């Protein structure tokens, strides 16, 4: 699943080709891709809308239209592509937005987990998300206080989008390694100094991920190079770049988790 850096990278690439375009019509090819409103209402409301901005919140794309917001979440296998409107549809194209200028936005989703929302109030969808880790609201003090309001294992808590928005498996493992924190550590055991280190590590890996256009580790997301700079993720059995000890893989909250047993001791 694309995480914050991959979604940000895609949004930046789509922005120049989408802003200013008018949506002429919508071809909804699998109705369950649409979370809200009804298919009929969606086609009626989106027709004639002008795309004014393309942004991101956590792992959601936001196309700000004349009167509505179009939210898209890629989930496990979604992809967004701009092509000529005359190009032949592919098997897994779930939604096609025909645009002015003979272009179309294709939402391709092999596994059918991706979702689209058209709403006048994006808070209906985004309201429960935690702070953005690259925003001013995400501070070391906030993080320390928030960690101590919970009693949860550190990694599952960081993956909880209502706690902190945008982190996924890759960047959580990388950030915990930089901060030298064990993924199973209790959130309310983290000291103020450790919270400061974690805050810095989260921002560092996300910024580096964006700088390198994200991580390309499977067929779903392509074009990034951050995978060439992983410290622990997907490096089971290889030496830790900091101490040389073998990277271990465990399962935490049903997610494969990579860490260094020496650098990230469970205290």
CATH class bucket of the largest domain:
Alpha Beta
> Strand order within the widest sheet?
2-9-5-4-3
- The H-and-E topology, N to C, reads as HEEHEEEEEEEHHHHHEE
CATH-level-4 superfamily name of the largest domain: MutM-like, N-terminal
Indicate the radius of gyration in whole angstroms. Answer: 20 Å
Structural classification: alpha+beta
Q: Kindly state the percentage of residues in helix.
A: 25-40%
CATH architecture of the largest domain: Alpha-Beta Barrel
Nearest-integer average pLDDT: 96
Poorly predicted runs of 5 or more residues:
none
What fraction strand?
A: 15-25%
Can you summarize the main beta sheet?
A: 5 strands, mixed
CATH fold type of the largest domain: N-terminal domain of MutM-like DNA repair proteins
Number of domains: 2
The tally of helices reads 7
- Tell me the total number of β-strands: 11
From the N-terminal CA to the C-terminal CA, the straight-line distance is 31 Å
Characteristic terms for this protein:
single chain, 267 residues, alpha+beta, N-terminal domain of MutM-like DNA repair proteins, Helicase, Ruva Protein, domain 3, 2 domains, five-stranded mixed β-sheet, 27% helix
């Amino acid at each position: 699943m694309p995480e914050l850096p991959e979604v940000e990278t895609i949004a930046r690439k789509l922005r120049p080709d989408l802003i200013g375009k008018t949506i002429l019509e919508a071809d909804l090819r699998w109705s369950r891709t649409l979370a809200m409103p009804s298919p009929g209402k969606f086609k009626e409301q989106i027709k004639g809308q002008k795309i004014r901005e393309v942004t991101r919140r956590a792992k959601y794309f936001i196309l700000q239209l004349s009167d509505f917001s179009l939210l898209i979440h890629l989930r496990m296998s979604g992809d967004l592509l701009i092509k000529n409107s005359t190009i032949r549809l592919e098997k897994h194209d779930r939604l096609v937005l025909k645009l002015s200028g003979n272009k179309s936005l294709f939402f391709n989703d092999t596994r059918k987990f991706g979702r689209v929302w058209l709403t006048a109030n994006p808070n209906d969808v985004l309201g429960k998300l935690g702070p953005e880790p690259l925003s001013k609201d995400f501070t070391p003090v906030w993080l320390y206080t928030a960690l101590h309001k919970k009693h949860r294992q550190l990694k599952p808590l960081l993956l909880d989008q209502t706690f902190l928005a945008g982190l996924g498996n890759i960047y959580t493992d990388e950030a915990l390694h930089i901060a030298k924190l064990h993924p199973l550590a209790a959130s309310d055991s983290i000291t103020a100094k450790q919270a400061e280190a974690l805050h810095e590590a989260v921002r560092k890996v996300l910024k580096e991920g964006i700088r390198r256009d994200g991580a390309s580790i499977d067929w779903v997301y392509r074009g990034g190079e951050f995978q060439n700079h992983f410290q622990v993720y997907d490096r089971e059995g290889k030496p830790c770049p900091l101490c040389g000890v073998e990277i271990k893989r465990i399962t935490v909250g049903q997610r494969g988790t990579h860490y260094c047993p020496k650098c990230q001791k469970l205290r």
